[in-house]
Structure formats: C-alpha cells, structure tokens
Amino acid sequence: MIGFVVFSLGRAWQGFWRNALMSLAATATMVLMLVLLAGFWIIQTGLLSALDFTESKVEVVANINIDEGQNTIDALGTRIAAMPQVAAVTFVSREAALARFQQSMKDQGREDLSKYLDTNPFPASYEVKLKDPSYSAAVADALRQDPAVKNVLDTKETAKNVKTVTDIMRTAGTVVLFVIGVIVLFIIVNTIRLAVVARSEEIEIMRLVGASDAFIRWPFVFEGAMVGLFGAAITLVCLYLLADPIGGFMVDFFRVLPLSFGPLARDLIVLVSTAGIGLGVLGSWLSVRTYLIR
Question: Any alpha helices (H) in the chain, and if so which ranges?
C-alpha cells in the first residue's frame, strides 16, 4: 500500500511538470478562485464582527428612585444579576452619571448647563448587559415592575433590528459561500479536465495494457492535490504580504475595535488550505472519472 502511494506520488509529480503549461494554468485558476473565496470570507467575517460588536452594546438601563437607600439599591442589583437573561450588571452612581454628562458636553464642544443647577438631577442606575439582544423586552418589563425602579430605558427596537440583521447576514453569508464554492468547483473541475483531456491518449494506453482504475486514477488525484496545495500556498503568501493593508481596511471600514486577527489568520489558513486541496482532489477525481466510466 505504501509502495503504491509512493509510486502514485512520483507519477503525479512527473505528470505535473511534464504538462507544466496546463498544470500552471490550473494552479493559476486555483489561486484566483481561492483569493475570491478568501476575500469574501474576510468581508463576511468583518461584517459579522461588526454585528457582534453592536449586539454587545445592546443593554437595558434601570434608573433608580432618587430617595432609595443603599440597602434597597444593593438588593435591586442582586435581583437583576440573578436574572437568567443577564450577562453583567454595572452600577452607575449619581455622581458618575453627572460626570459622564459633563464629559459628553465637553467632548461635543457644548456648554455644560448642569453647572447652573443647585442639585444633581441624575438618578443612580444599573446598566444591564444581556446574554442575547432578544432578551431586551423581557428584562425591561421585569424591571418596570420593581418598586425601586423609577423608569427603564431599553433599546427594544434596536435589539430587534440587530438580531434580524445578524440572522440574515449569517444565513446569507453561508449561502453565498456555498454558491461561491460550487462555482469554484465547477471552474476548477473544467480546468483540470483540460489537463486530463490533453493526456487522454495516455489514459487509453494504460487501459489497453490492463491498468486498473485505481492505477490510473490515483496519480491524477495526487496531481490535483498538488495543484490545490500549490494554489493554497501561493494564495496564503499573497494574503500574508497583504495582511497589513487588509487589517487596516477592516478596521477603517467596519470600525470594530479590537478585531481578533489571530483567530482570523488561523481560520483563513485552514479555509484556504482545505478548500485548495479538497477542490484539487475532487476536481481531478471527477475529471478522470469521465474516462473511467466509458
């Protein structure tokens, strides 16, 4: 078995360079298709990262009655934290709320009108981060029933819209990736088929002398794997050289900070390598199969 694999690899290597023009054409096509696939995947990843970032900003704010004591406020925080839909709770004191307002006015270059007031008009509050934006309405309704809560500010419509857009983007992205994969496979199969057609006489001669289907097929399959491997390697080198421009583009375009480029690079390597070798093997298998079923 090992001897057959070594023999097939040797035949594949010889066949790749014996038909260098067709092999290089197939490799170039593979590179173009993998760049297209990787480019769309990078854009989709950026869009989903932006949506995830937006999801993380969806929260419910419970303003507390000004005359409530600290024990009541602490008990309210404990009740909120115990809700199964809640991911985190942050207490904002009246002083902190006033400082935020003053800083906001300063950042906008507007006059701080709070300095003309005798007392701090801002209530203390709890900022509630949710495990999922769809929980916004349920949490807000529950907090409105609490006697210690003055009013509740929730982004129910924003949460609903974000959830809808996220679901659509994930579904559409998966469908588009699948369609691109099918198109890539079709182009690669036909490109490799041209190389197989150029060697049709060689295949017929091997069949005439009694070569088995496996003896004929596997060198072509390994040759397709080489095309995919070389194509993936060239694509990854190109993406590596363009890593800084791509990273700058994603940060500037999506305005999502920080983007996790470590997992992005790892996933991209896996995607390109798997797609390249897989498409090369599948394309060769389907192309040779045309001759073997005659």
Answer: 2-18, 20-56, 70-81, 94-107, 136-144, 156-198, 200-208, 213-241, 243-254, 261-292
Give the orientation angle of helix 156-198 with respect to helix 261-292, to 10 degrees.
40
Report helix, strand or coil for 52.
helix
d(CA 223, CA 188): 13
Report d(CA 45, CA 37) in Å as an integer.
12
- For residue 174, the Cα-to-chain-centroid distance in whole angstroms is 10
Q: Which amino acid is at 7?
A: F
Q: Are the beta carbons of 223 and 15 closer than 8 angstroms?
A: yes
Largest CA distance in the chain: 103
In this prediction, residue 233 carries a pLDDT of 92
- pLDDT tens, residue by residue, 73-132: 888 888 988 888 888 888 988 888 888 888 888 877 787 777 777 788 888 888 888 887
Is-cis flag, bond preceding 84, omega within 30? Answer: no
Q: Both tokens of residue 233?
A: 């390697």
Q: What is the C-alpha to C-alpha distance for residues 109 and 94, in angstroms, rounded to an integer?
A: 23
Identity of residue 45 = T
| Predicted TM-score of the model (pTM) | 0.61
Q: 142-155: per-residue pLDDT in tens?
A: 888 888 888 888 76
User: What are residue 154's DSSP bridge partners?
Assistant: 60
The model's pLDDT over 230-268, given as tens digits with 9 standing for 90+, comes to: 989 998 888 888 777 766 666 565 554 445 545 677 888
- CA 268, 270, 274 angle in degrees (round to 5)? 120
CA 76 to chain centre: 38
